[in-house]
Each structure stands twice: as C-alpha cells, then as structure tokens.
Amino acid sequence: MAMGKDGKERNLILAIDTSAGTTAAVFDGETMASFISYEDRFGHAENIGFAIKRALDEAGIRAADLTMVAVGRGPAPYTGLRVGIAAGVSLAVALGIPAVGVITLIAVARKHPQGKVLVVADAKRKEIFVAGFDAGQQVIPPSVSTSEQLVDFADFQQVDGTCDASLIGHYTTWALAAGMDLSDTSALYLRSPDVSPSKGKRVSG
Amino acid sequence: MEIKKLSQHDLVAVMEIEADLFGAEAWLETSMKSEINGDFTHYFGVFQEGLVGYAGLSSVPNTFVSDIQTIAIAKSHQAQGLGRALAESLVAKARALGSEAVFLEVRADNEPAIALYEKLGFTQIDIRKKYYQPSGVDALVMRLEVHQPIVLGVESSCDETGIGIVKGNRLLANALHSSMDEHAKFGGVVPEVAARAHLEAMQPTIERALKEAQLSMTDIDAIAVANGPGLAGALMVGIGAAKALAIANDKPIYAVNHLVGHVGADVLESGSVTLPTIALLVSGGHTSLLLVRDLLDDVELLGETIDDAAGEAFDKVARVLGLPYPGGPEIDKLAETGDPKAIRFPRGLSLPKDMVKHRFDFSFSGLKTAVARHVEKAEDQQLPLSKPDVAASFREAAVDVLLTKAINACERYEVKRLLLGGGVVANARLRQQAKLRCEVAGIDLRIPRFSLCTDNGAMIASLGAQLVMAGREPSSLGFGAESTLEVTKVQSH
After folding, report:
1. How high is the ipTM of this complex?
2. Which residues in chain A are closer than 8 Å to B245, comparing Cβ atoms?
3. HSE value, Cβ hemisphere, 13 Å, CA-based, for B396
C-alpha cells in the first residue's frame, strides 16, 4: 500500500480499457484522480503508452505508487482489446502488484441500476455483443447477437455499451468492496478464431 | 591532436617511440606488428604532425573483458593530457566491444600513470612482484568496472512469444512460448490464434525470463520490442506489454526491426558484432537475403521471396505428402531415406532471364506446385510413388536455390561471411550443404544455436542493446505495429 501525506494507506488503482478507444484512469480510493481518452478505434498500440503515462502524470503519481491495475476484458473487437490487457497485466508484473479484470458490458450496466436494460456494443462483422440486466442483476450473460435479433429483447431498454477506463475503475472499487472475485484478466472471447482447417486443393485439372 | 586507429604503416614510428621510452624492456618489432594487425587487438595513435603516442587494447570475444596492453607517449609530448585522451579512447572502445571490465598492469613506480588510471575509475586489485624485467619493478594490476546495458526484449511477430534479457553482448535469458501446436490442425499459422496465445503467454514468459536471468524488473535498463515486420495483431500484444514494462520503472523503450533482430542473434552467439555479413533469413514467414554492413545504419535488402516463404513451402509440400504441420521436420525425416536426385524439381528464379530483376529473389510457389503435380499424376495413373524420393528431391531443390543465391551474394558483394537465421535453419540438409558449400567458397559460415535462430526475445533485446551502447535516442511511446516494416528501418521512432 502506498502512503498518503497524512500517513494513511492509499489504494491507487490504474484502470485501462481498450474495448473502444484507448483510455486510462487513476483512482485514489473511490475518487477518480485522472482520466485520459484517445478515441481512435484503430490506434490502440500507438496510444496505450501515452494514455497510461498521462493518466499517471495528471494524477501526480509514479507508476511505482500504484497498488493495483484493473483492465477491461471486453467483449470487444479483440485486436485492440488485447493491447490494453497486455499492457495492464505486464505493468502489474513489473510492479509486483495484483491485476484484476472487469467485463465491460457489466461495468456499463452499473450506470443503469433500475429496470430491464440490454447493454449493446459493437462486435464488428455485422454482429453485436449484448448482456441483459434486471434491476442491476445480470439476466442474460454476455453473448454475440445481431441487430435483427434485438426484437427478441423488446421488453429491455437498449443502452450503449461503449466502455472506458472510468467505468472499469468505478466498477472495480465497488466490486472489490463487495468482496467479488475479479482475478480473471483474460480477454472474454465470445467467438472462436474465424478459421477452418484447410483440406488442400488439387493443382492439376 | 587527432586520435585514430593505427595501421601497419605506422609501425616504424611506433617502434621509434617504443625504443626511446622503454629501452631494454621495449617490445620487439615483430610482436608490435602482430599486436597492431591482430584480430582481437585494437591500437590507436595520437597524431600531432606525426605520431606522438599510441595505445592498445586486447579483447577476446565472449570473455567480456578487455586488457590495456600499453599506453606510450613520446618524451617530447608528455604531461599534455595525451595519455589521458588515449586511455579514454581505449575505455570507450572496450565499452563498445561489450566489455564488462577493463584490466591493466602499470609499473609500481609510475606515479603519474597510476594517478591517471585512478582518475578514470580504475582500482588496484593485485600486485605482481618483480613483473618488469630486467629492472625488477613490481606491477600493479588495476581494474575498471564497465556497466553494460541490461535490456529486456519482447518478440511477438508470429507464433512465438519471446522474452529475452541481455547485458550488452551477453545473453542472460531467452524464455519462449510457442503456439505452434495450436496452429497444427489448421496447417499453418492463424493470426487470431497466434494473437490470443501471445496474450496468455505474456505474463508467464516475462516471469520465466526474469527468473532465468536472476534479475528483477528494476535491474532492467531499457526495453526493446519488435514492431515489425510480422502479423499486426500479434505484434500489438508485444507492443502493449513492452510499453507498460517501460513505463512501470520509467525506462527507455526501443522499437526494433524483427528481421534485423535475427542478425542481432549472432552478436549473442559470438559475444561480438562481426560484420559485414550476408544474412539468409528463412522461416515460415520470411525468405530474405540481406547485406549487413552496419547493424544499426546499413542494412540492405538484396532479395526476398516474391510468393511463398521457404518454410511455407515445406508446410504445403508436407500436406501434399500427407504429413502433419509443421512440415520442415517431417520432410527432413522422410527425406533421409530418399534420393535427392530422383526427381528434378524446378529452382525458382534461377534462369538467366531472372538474373536481371530477380537475381537475389526467391520463388517457391512453382516448386510447391511441381511437387503437387508429380504426386497427383502418380496417384491418378496409379504409378508407384516414393514419398521419400519426393521429400528428398523437394528438399534438395529448396536448399539448392537458397544456398546458391546466398553464396552468389557473398561473391557479388565480396563479403566472405554468411549468417543463417530463421526456423528453417533447423533443416539438417540446409545446415549440412551450407557448411560444405561455404567451405569450398572460403566463406565464414555462422549459424547461431537453434534457440537463437528461431524467433526469440533475446535477439530483440540484443539489437536494443546495440542501440543503447551506440548512444541512440530511445523511441517515443507512440510507435505502432508495422506489418510490412522495411529492413532498412532498424529502429522506429
């Protein structure tokens, strides 16, 4: 634990999310001390270093002061998502601190504690990721769907599932206080790699 | 004042000063000549309208130490700081050679010299009684510690997650996780499968490398990462990890070229940079012929494959023969009992007309098709088919064209050194033929151990260390993955 100026222990969490753009935030306990966002949805590898560095700088701390790293696990387009997880996990290894993971659709649902909501996020390839909640309780687990299938969820209010590091950080502090296990930092893959074994073709006619 | 490397032409001037200064204890001219011309010695002269002093260093590769052999200043030019300038040149040279310590012996009665060495940071570690003869004066043995940069390298361009750690030219750790088995059922590397495997392997591989080197992250001076060429989604995992490792302890980061990294592997094998060289890099993703005059500033692409990589051809031919992935080892095994001359398969881009535009390029797609036709024809007409003969003849054609072009490049560019790199170097026939043909052509053949030939993190760390040792600026935090990065771009900023 890092010590504050008053000598009290501080929980300094770096939250990272690359499920949409590239975002990073520092949480001092439950308070967000900084938030950095790069909106480019194809620039994760380029922006991840700047996002982390600036989030630390704006919070006025050094990486070595951190006590935990929290990463968004998706579901989200995997190429960008992996950049944030790889960075978060590696930062935690380098500092010898724990890393935790948060499913992005669940982090977004925290903003909507009332009624029945369907959190919807872009999955590319004309597909969407969805998860359903009723009064904050998950009733439909994160899954792959299409916009045509949304009629099946007519009694749910649809909400934008775009996530960022501030939502990941807020969810982390809340969930850990509630005693939840966030130790899984793996990417949440809802699709298999898009490939089938090749049979080999004849070359002569 | 000018300090420059001595050549044989300076020998007479050197011997004049040597005799004047040391009289009966002076070195013989023959000894001095072999010192100046030696492979592992480095002599410098200080010139002021002619030679007025000289100094020499000896450094045997892979020992990681240098010895100062002599520093001599003509009587007429002493006490002007020339000795110090030469000593500093030698220490700088030792540092550039990757030495971790510099040793010297000095006469116990030479107080000005001892004071100079102490100023440069040397400390006395021993005394040799009556070392100088015939005078019988003692020698003090002094040592200077030289810190070589400890660099952690991250490799994730294809299906190997590699974390390597080097100290200057010295290999400390080379941890690897391969996802090859996961690609086997698809018959080739699947980018998404590779990228997923990198993410899972990253943390345990970092931890294994640190443990192997017996270091912690705070001991690391710099991070290096391959940012291309390779599979973009795979490269990005390594880049994300590497940037975070750099930020964690506020260390510089160097984005380096994966292909040039293969040449950096040789530095770890031999403990020194040995250039110029022709480099033949053959793997499942690349078939490239490089001319490397300088590891950091002068890498030229002489040629590359215009279709399939050589390793890919092995995989495809293996599939035609009903063998599993990866095809290289399987074909190697089958070929052992086959006749390499049984079938004359084509050598791609080897006709006289190809020499204009494609002299050093490769093509394996025609070879693969020829093998498939041969097999299909035999099956269709129910002719006898010797798979060992097909495997041996295919392997012979592939190896022949690779080595013919590589050796031609050595001759064309008058570089009598050939370095092999990449996973296809595991091929027994390639290694065997390379040895044979290089011996005949008088070419110095270099093949790093296999764990340094395949994709690995140590070679990336090695290239990063060369950049640090040369005082290059680190890359910014903003570089991305460049799947088609050109070999001329050794470092991305």
Report:
1. 0.95
2. 90-91, 94
3. 18
